[in-house]
Design a protein that fits this description.
seven-stranded mixed sheet, binds magnesium ion, 2 domains, about 40% helix, globular, Rossmann fold
Length: about 210
């Protein structure tokens, strides 16, 4: 099984709700939602959308973390992670959210996983995006898929949203949160990570 790797989205996939929206609602000064509209119309890319929105934040990182409270995660994620460790399947989080938010939620849940996501570089919330291994990659999620495929890994991509589409199209196998945007493009749906773990266990028989 160790020829598999799991690339897993964070917001709406591991967490039940988006973690960035409440932070923008609370701390951004100005009309941050207009950038979501520009992104959905294809007038700006994901990186630009995130940068424009987060630089409207008027708060520091400790203030934001203490405002977050306890963030619930989807049922049985820790079980999936334990199973993957036992099978030597690496699990990497690939997220269009922010690194420090993701690490804070993982820490709340006693989890420690590699995270590929934008980092905050300074107090004005300038972002550093994951560097691309392939300059022609449309975004860093698809870039990560290609990077591991070049290492002869079969990439299992797990996600829910628009930012997962390119990565999912490149991946070897896709699981989408049931009834999500991604599930309208990929038929393997799941609601709990127990269900997903069972699907991955069955792969042993298929490959
Ligand atoms: Mg998501």
């Amino acid at each position: 099984m160790s020829d598999y790797i799991i690339l897993c989205d964070f917001d709406g996939t591991i967490t039940l709700q988006d973690t960035c929206v409440p932070i923008l609602e609370q701390f951004a000064v100005g009309d941050w939602e207009k950038y979501d509209k520009l992104l959905s119309k294809g007038l700006i890319n994901l990186h630009e959308c995130m940068q424009r929105q987060f630089e409207m934040i008027q708060a520091n990182i400790p203030t934001i973390i203490s405002s977050m409270g306890s963030i619930p995660i989807r049922e049985r994620f820790a079980d999936l992670v334990s199973f993957c460790i036992s099978q030597e399947i690496k699990v990497v989080i690939v997220s269009a959210g922010l690194d420090f938010i993701i690490r804070s939620v993982l820490s709340q849940n006693n989890l420690d996983l590699p995270v590929v996501a934008a980092k905050v570089k300074d107090e004005r919330f300038q972002l550093e995006f994951p560097s691309l291994h392939y300059p022609d990659s449309i975004d860093f999620k698809v870039d990560q898929v290609k990077y591991y495929q070049a290492q002869q890994k079969k990439v299992i991509f797990i996600g829910d949203g628009n930012s997962d589409l390119q990565g999912a199209m490149q991946a070897d196998l896709v699981f989408a949160v049931r009834n999500s945007f991604l599930n309208s493009h990929f038929e393997n749906g799941f609601s709990s990570f127990l269900e997903l773990k069972e699907s991955i266990m069955n792969l042993n028989n298929k490959f």
